[in-house]
Design brief:
The protein is an alpha/beta fold and 605 residues long. 38% of the residues lie in helices and 20% in strands.
Length: 605
């Protein structure tokens, strides 16, 4: 019999101990499953097998003779290799620094130097080539290990293959854990800040362990659960909820092949728990609406009825006001027919056996939430941030109010401060920002509470987020981007006189720009277009040219902040037309209203 999560958490204070306890408690059950291209098949790994890999990798780390707490940068896609190096670091008293595997070279280079990483592990030597030249030097970096390639002597930093690095340390016998305290760092996770440069959030072992325990008290995870993982492990949301929490519960994690293949992988893995950002549910919803638009009137009517009946049933179960509508007895009879004809077909798209579908990182639209909840998808929203490791509040399976982000987790305190700002105090709140004491003080009140920058209302014990104090844009994938800094970077190119970026609750960032008239004439001439014809501004060739310039101007930003859509004009935004303030700041609400149709057009493409 496998050991329960609560039993495991009682025995440990660090993540290294958590993993060791899991291997000991359930060595032969499946821990991870991933698709391996060379075998053209899904391959499963037991906890014992992963434990042996971690011990082997740990011996290789020991051979580097690094100081306790040294940073190891990890630039790998989700999978067993990422788990192995992360757990090996934790077991040897080192600090993982997870990075997104498709981030820009400039951002990666900055992080490597900022955290003073001693070692970097990535997939291929080709990844290292642009990183190597992104900064003049990497004075702290001692070794680069690539999963797939052989050694490379052409760089100032030694580069070796994983096979060569591991070969001298072939033993997979368990190693005693390095002395590590709950107060020691378990990771430095970088997140965008108002300066435009990413900030390293210092999370301790206590932060993560406390958050795991609090989340499990709200939403149970079991040893027979199967998680489907596709959010990058560089995100604390996935890191805590989709990675460390299953270790505590003894659940199996299946690593999806790619975001593009999620629909297929859901049907193959048939997960019981899905941890996602709103964008995935929005994709399914959009495809569903597209199919409905092509369906007969009868099918459209059945779908609408199923959603309405199911929503009323959901509201009654959770005590929501909409549950008072209609007859519960009639709805029960209707559902007997509608559930197998409509709802089951939709739930089968998610694998057919989800018992918890978690959405976090950004707000989920009411239409999407109401649709899937009405059809029986157990969709749970919560709230958190990297700085809180990350979950502050969450809805539960038996207490789910989707217009809110749920009740505060056990052990977490919240209060409403000045300007209705939500403030948090909890064992899961970060130690601070790496090397940035001023930034740490700026988000901490004089009596020790974390300032979230989000405005909120607490109603009947539930939190409802009402706005944002700080000017940070959050995409529908949960990425945080400082718009003003990105706009300044774009306007560093003289072609762009003014710029506004859009991306709040959108799948990607778009730039709306005012072009300098001389610059536009030159660009139009290069493209053999008439600069006097305003319609030419929206030609595909012009959009491509503008996006190339914007990409170059924003190369210092993370990949997710680089705009993928553009709309241009030569008519300036002025004080007189009400689009900028007397101090020349953008009137964002006015611009959004003026450009509403253009914004929608970009996201329909």
């Amino acid at each position: 019999m496998t050991q329960s999560a609560s039993e495991t958490l009682k025995k440990i204070s660090t993540l290294g101990q958590l993993f060791a306890e899991r291997v000991k408690a359930s060595p032969d059950t499946e821990a991870y499953r991933q698709f391996e291209s060379d075998k053209k098949a899904w391959v499963g790994y037991s906890w014992k097998q992963i434990g042996e890999r971690v011990a082997h990798w740990g011996r290789a780390l020991d051979a580097l003779k690094l100081e306790h707490g040294s940073r190891i940068a990890i630039l790998l896609p989700n999978g067993v290799d990422a788990v192995s190096i992360d757990q090996a670091c934790l077991a040897r008293g080192l600090v993982p620094v997870p990075m997104h595997s498709i981030d820009t070279a400039g951002s990666i280079g900055y992080i490597l130097n900022d955290c003073q990483a001693s070692m970097l592990m990535l997939s291929t030597r080709a990844q290292w080539t642009p990183i190597a030249v992104a900064c003049e030097q990497y004075p702290h970096l001692k070794l680069v290990v690539t999963i797939e390639d052989g050694p490379d002597e052409s760089n100032s930093v030694p580069v070796t293959s994983l096979q060569s690095w591991l070969a001298p340390h072939a033993s997979s016998a368990a190693l005693p854990l390095a002395p590590t305290r709950a107060e020691d760092l378990s990771a430095i996770v970088y997140t965008s800040g108002t300066t435009g440069k990413p900030k390293g959030v210092m999370l301790t072992h206590r932060n993560i362990v406390a958050n795991i325990g609090a989340v499990l008290a709200r939403v149970e995870a079991r040893a027979d659960d199967v998680f489907l993982s596709f959010l990058p492990l560089s995100h604390t949301f996935e890191r805590t909820i989709g990675y460390y929490l299953p270790v505590a519960a003894g659940s199996c994690v299946v690593y999806a092949r790619s975001p593009q293949l999620i629909a297929e992988d859901l049907k193959t893995a048939r997960p019981t728990v899905l941890v996602s950002v709103p964008r995935i549910y929005e994709r399914f919803y959009a495809k569903l609406q597209e199919k409905l638009g092509q369906a007969s009137g009868v099918k459209q009517g059945m779908f609408k009825m199923a959603q309405q009946v199911g929503w009323r049933r959901f509201c009654r179960r959770n005590g929501l006001p909409d549950g008072a509508q209609g007859s519960a007895a009639i709805d029960a009879l209707l559902w007997l027919a509608l559930e197998p004809l409509v709802a089951k077909n939709i739930l089968d798209l998610f694998g057919g056996r989800l018992r918890a579908a978690v959405s976090g990182g950004a707000a989920l639209s009411q239409a999407v939430g109401q649709c899937f909840l009405g059809l029986g998808l157990p969709l749970l929203q919560g709230y958190g941030m990297t700085e809180t490791a990350p979950v502050v509040s969450a809805n539960g399976l038996d207490d789910n109010w989707p217009a809110t982000v749920g009740r505060v987790l056990d052990g977490v305190e919240v209060r409403i401060g000045e300007n209705n700002e939500l403030q948090v105090r909890a064992p899961s709140v970060m130690k601070g920002y790496w090397g940035r004491p001023d930034d740490t003080r700026a988000v901490t009140t004089s009596d020790g509470w974390l300032r979230t920058g989000d405005q909120a209302v607490i109603e009947n014990g539930r939190i409802r987020i009402s706005g944002r104090l700080k000017e940070i844009m959050v995409t529908s994938t949960g990425e945080k981007i400082p718009p003003a800094d990105l706009e300044l970077a774009i306007m560093a190119d003289p072609l762009f006189e003014q710029a506004m970026v859009v991306g709040e609750n959108r799948p990607f960032v778009s730039a709306f720009v005012v072009l300098a008239k001389d610059g536009w004439r030159d660009l139009a001439a290069q493209l053999k277009l008439d600069a006097g014809d305003a319609s030419n501004l929206q030609k595909p060739a012009v959009r491509e040219a503008l996006l190339a310039r914007i990409k170059e101007a924003s190369k210092g930003f993370p990949y997710y902040a680089v705009p993928r859509g553009v709309w241009a004009t030569t008519d300036p935004w002025t004080i007189e037309n009400g689009l900028i303030t007397p101090t020349l700041k953008l009137k964002r609400n006015a611009l959004h209203a003026r450009l509403e149709s253009e914004i929608e057009a970009i996201y329909r493409r």
